[in-house]
Amino acid sequence: xxxxxxxxELLFQVLTEREEKASAAxxxxxxxxxxxxxxxxxLCAAIVDRLTFGGAIIETGIDSYRLAQSRARAEQHTTA
Length: 80
Description:
The chain is mostly helical. Helix content is 51%, strand content 0%.
């Protein structure tokens, strides 16, 4: 998924305003190299910095159940 510059700036603003006021939880199947999602590398680095500063990163090491289910359905359709 790609987020344009305006959308990324709005997300950064929300994260900045929530900082030290409330928690934020983010789930992703991707590592922190979100340059495909956030086109501007500097803005991407700033968002990752906001998310990780003082936070807890939990890596489950488990593939997404939904992704595995979608791939299985796609495979069934191509072999049928």
